[in-house]
Structures are given as C-alpha cells and as structure tokens.
From TrEMBL:
<dbReference type="GO" id="GO:0005634">
    <property type="term" value="C:nucleus"/>
</dbReference>
<dbReference type="InterPro" id="IPR019787">
    <property type="entry name" value="Znf_PHD-finger"/>
</dbReference>
<keyword id="KW-0479">Metal-binding</keyword>
<feature type="region of interest" description="Disordered">
    <location>
        <begin position="1"/>
        <end position="39"/>
    </location>
</feature>
<dbReference type="InterPro" id="IPR019786">
    <property type="entry name" value="Zinc_finger_PHD-type_CS"/>
</dbReference>
<dbReference type="GO" id="GO:0032259">
    <property type="term" value="P:methylation"/>
</dbReference>
<dbReference type="InterPro" id="IPR001965">
    <property type="entry name" value="Znf_PHD"/>
</dbReference>
<keyword id="KW-0156">Chromatin regulator</keyword>
<keyword id="KW-0489">Methyltransferase</keyword>
<dbReference type="Pfam" id="PF00628">
    <property type="entry name" value="PHD"/>
</dbReference>
<dbReference type="InterPro" id="IPR001214">
    <property type="entry name" value="SET_dom"/>
</dbReference>
<dbReference type="InterPro" id="IPR053114">
    <property type="entry name" value="ATXR5/ATXR6"/>
</dbReference>
<feature type="domain" description="SET">
    <location>
        <begin position="242"/>
        <end position="364"/>
    </location>
</feature>
<dbReference type="GO" id="GO:0140953">
    <property type="term" value="F:histone H3K27 monomethyltransferase activity"/>
</dbReference>
<protein>
    <recommendedName>
        <fullName>[histone H3]-lysine(27) N-methyltransferase</fullName>
        <ecNumber>2.1.1.369</ecNumber>
    </recommendedName>
</protein>
<dbReference type="GO" id="GO:0006275">
    <property type="term" value="P:regulation of DNA replication"/>
</dbReference>
<keyword id="KW-0539">Nucleus</keyword>
Amino acid sequence: MAPATTSPADSRRLVGSRRRTEAPRRMLSPSPSPPPKKMRPMAEILATARYAVVERDDYSDMSCEQCGSGERPDELLLCDKCDRGFHMKCLRPIVARVPIGSWLCLSCSGQRRVRSFSQKKIIDFFKIRKCNAVEEKCASSQDARKRRRRSASLVLQKKRRRLLPFIPSEDPVQRLKQMGTLASALTALQIEFSDGLTYMPGMASRSTNQAKLEDGGMQVLSKEDTETLELCRAMSKRGECPPLVVVFDSCEGFTVEADGQIKDMTFIAEYNGDVDFLNNREHDDCDSMMTLLLATDPSKSLVICPDKRGNIARFINGINNHTLESKKKQNCKCVRYSVNGECRVFLVATRDIAKGERLYYDYNGYEHEYPTHHFV
C-alpha cells in the first residue's frame, strides 16, 4: 500500500498542535525564586507528636538511667514515651509521690532540669537582708549577750520552761547548704517560701485570726518568749537559719534532720502557710494541714495549709501516736500561742537533739483530730 501523503495545510495544523503542548516562552526577566520553606526542628516535632505506650513482656532487667542500679524497683518510674526507668530519688526535682496517670521524664516532657542553688539564688529565694559590718557586729554582740544571760540561769530557765533561740551553724557555707536543701525541697513540690502566715483572697482574712475565739482559751506567749521569737526572726532574715537540713527518704518522703546539736526547749520553726476555714478544707487531701484555731463556733475554726506556701516546718514529720515505738522517736512538740491577740503555731524541742537525728512531733497535739495510723 502506498504511504499516505499530507498536504502543506495539514502539516501546518500538526506543527501548530505540537507547539500548543509546549510551555509558552516569555521574553520578560525571570521572577525571583520563592523563599525556602522553614523546616521545624526535629526536637519540636517529637515534643508535640503523639506517642503510643508499648508494654514490655519483662521489666526485670530495668535499671535507673541516673545511677545505673536496678534495685528498689518499687521506686522506679517508667517514662510512658521513651520507656526508660528513673528512681524517684535520682530525679531532679525529686519525685516525692508516685504520679497518678501517665508520666514523662524530663527529656520527653521538655521541662528544664532543676539546678543546684548558688549563693545568690539562695539569698534571693529566702529574701535575706544584707546588712553592713557595723550592724552585723552590733547584732551579733547583742545576740551573744542574750545567750550568755540565758545560759547563766539554766536552772531557773528549766523551771520556767522558757523558749531558747536556735544557734545557727558558725560556718556560713554550711548555712547556705542547709538553706539550699530547703529551697530544693520547696521547689520540687512547687511550694513558695513563706516566713509568716499568709491570707489569700477567697480564704480566711487576717481579722478572723483572733485568739479570744479559742474554745477554752489559748495560752499567751510571755514577754521573754516573745523576745526570743523576734530574735529568731531577725536571725532568719540575716540568713542565720536553724541547724537543719531537708533530706529525702524512700519511706517517709521529705524529712528534716538536725545538722548540729539542738538543746531542749529550743525554738525550731513557726508553722506557716495559707490560713483558711476548717469547713472549706473538710474534703482536702493535703497531708500537712495544721490546726490554728479551734473556736467555740466550728464555722470560725482555722487551719494552716502549706500546700502552696510554707517553710521547713512543712517537712518535719509527725509520729504514729498509736504505737509505743513510734512515740519514742518524738523529740519536738507543736504548741499554739496567742501572740498580740493572734493565733500562732510553734515547733519546740522537747529534749536534746543530736546531730543527724531526725525531727518528729505529735501531729495531733491534744485535740486528736487527725488520724496517724499510717504514719511511719
């Protein structure tokens, strides 16, 4: 068969159709290239990405990423994202209680690691006042005279049971370490430091704290003991703290140890925190509420709640007053006084306390309002 022939008109139509399939050529200058897209860093993507919890068949070989030990498996927390293990005590901040629900380690949660407190941070944390050398020398000499006067009448003092001011550690570096342990414990529980009772909006006001409302009356702090209290407050504001350190125990959580010898009847600390009505806290699960006022009218009774604000008294543990062995550990007592018409709660040593000994007191006092069967 002879090949088909195409006319010149057909050839022009084919060429024209073939050219229409090509991109038209522009004679204008080329447009600038679009800016490159910004890519999100991989760490940001992983931090917001969904994750699935994959359970292992066997966790017997699990060890802590910090200390490398697999001991104390009951204290080993497993990250729900990376499945690595960490001891509650090895974490910073220390985890005092087993978290409810899912838990992420610091790397997976993106939280900043709590660093050790420097000297400047400790001074800022406790708002320590800086005094010049003349004022410090004068205050120290006055403190020494008061201590000599009290120590000279030791027999009379024991008879009247007057309060003694605490004697801070002589080494300023040691005092900074003591305050650093308290700052770390407060930070771990997200508690602000407070050197006095706080009255927050929506809770009890200061006008409700009236010692005259106490059922049966409240003992009044004597003039001599009031001077001791003011002396201790002045020392604390200068950074001269009681010889105490906050340590973490796997059974008791945060607890307080003596970092030096403490004599009988020494003022330990005032129990501080938010003041609220007892009726507002009936269903509160805070394990450190303290009775402030037991009024004849129950609706006017007050409690101290150190869950948001507090001091070292928050970490001094109570005894199980249902067992004889536990009662033997008690070396402090909790007493409520009327100071200038207001209720205050103090912790006082009931015997000589040696260095390294932990502090315990009867959490109930005399009212026996709180159960202590579960206390260690």
